[in-house]
Sequence to fold (554 residues):
Amino acid sequence: MRKNIRDLLIPIIKNSLKDLNLHKASDEFLCLDLPQDKRFGDFSTNIALRLSKATAKSPFEIAITLVDNIKKYLERSTLKNYIKEVKAEGAGFINFYLSNNYFYEELQNIISKGNNFIRVDVGKNRRVLIEFVSANPTGPLSVAHARQAVAGDVLANILDCLGFCVRREYYLNDEGNQINILGKSIELRLKELSGERVEFPDDHYQGDYIRDIAKEISAKGGKDFSGYGVKYILNIIKNELDDFGVRFDYWFSQRKLRESGKINKVLNFLKRKGFIYEQDGALWFKSSRFGDDKDRVVVKSDGTYTYLAPDIAYHQDKFKRGFAWLINLWGPDHHGYINRLKAAVTALGKNPDSLSIIIVQLASIFREGKPVQMSTRRGQYITLREVLDEVGLDASRFFFLMRRTSSHLDFDLDIAKKQTSENPVYYVQYAHARICSILNNSPIKLRFTQPLRAGAGFKDIDLTVLEEEEEIELIKKIWQFPYILNICFTTLDPYMLTVYLQIIAESFHKFYDKHRVLGRDDKLTKARLALIEGVRLAISSGLGLLGVSKPEKM
Fold:
């Protein structure tokens, strides 16, 4: 069974709906998902529930009728031997139960493809630019920036795996009020170093790194405190991101954007289109015309730009560089900014759906059961560097993704340091190492990496002997991986990947605790070796997408 069975089932469901004259009402509702509870099959659709209101019939009545019609189509299709049962259950769900033979074929196919089994060409090489982190170069990266960094990086890995041409970009806000405050903060520290008594305003940066910059400037000389500070801090940020496994293809400077004249050019373009007007000495963008709740100032009465003006020019530049889909990851304080930027993209003549904005909620760090307090300007906050030094790269990346990006994250440093099953990343990595140990120590050596030609490489392996409940469940978990990646794609959130890896690791540990892989029955041993190789491929691929190591010994 080489073709995605979901892609074959959906047309059958659509034809059944058409036969019942329900297709027009159901077009926007039809979805076929993996049930959260394994008792309800391998695929499930709630189409009957969604059609109940439009048809004035009970969901279960619709589901029963649909199931009868679907079964007729299945009898005439190539899926006949792969769909064990179709049932109307619960409040009106239609659940599909796949046969073991289907899963045996899928396991063989997965192992034959090796590490490429999760790669599919959904993206068709569509060019995507993901802009994330983009923290002002006014201090080391915080844990909030760290969470955005790993979320953007892993999302880029997933989209690349799905056939998109992905590039990563950091937007460098290297001018403006915050940069000026940085320069003044350094200047005050210099005065302090020379013996003067100074009072720091509340809005100035007071971390130890400001004193370090001041000492370096004092030793080397120089008067451009802001410029020196930006270069110094940017070097810190780049080193932190590099150690965090996050690398960017482009670093885009706002200062250079302004100097290029592109901001004025895009404002003139919008003015010619009739989307810019003058009022009270300022220039306003007619963003309300494109779905925003009100118009927005782009040039203030004193002639300086608002944040929106360079952002419009920046996004026009992205499109002009040939990117068809723009994805921005922002912090929660930017939520109100979404509609105005979507409006700007529309005014530029682009589809607003060509811009996706993901709001990444904040993270709280816990130590000894208590939250660590943070204050950016006073320097009293946990940095990415501190987390990396305390728990390491693997735990840092994994833990920052263990909640949906739209949800606040609590990061427990004590759990992240544990070398026990209580630590999720350790639990997953231990499953991988355990499998590698079994495969390496097995007296029966099977080669799974050679190219398949009509099943070559499996002639001595009979997967049908895998009949135990834990064995079938493991095969299903491996098979679900591409569907999990599709969820990450449609939600633009890599969170489900960490959930999946914990689930498949748990399934493996349960299987291993109950069944011997290396036994006296060579036929069963070979099948189980193939099974755990499939698990290894899934865990290895998942950890690879997360940028987490795949230890073979622990």
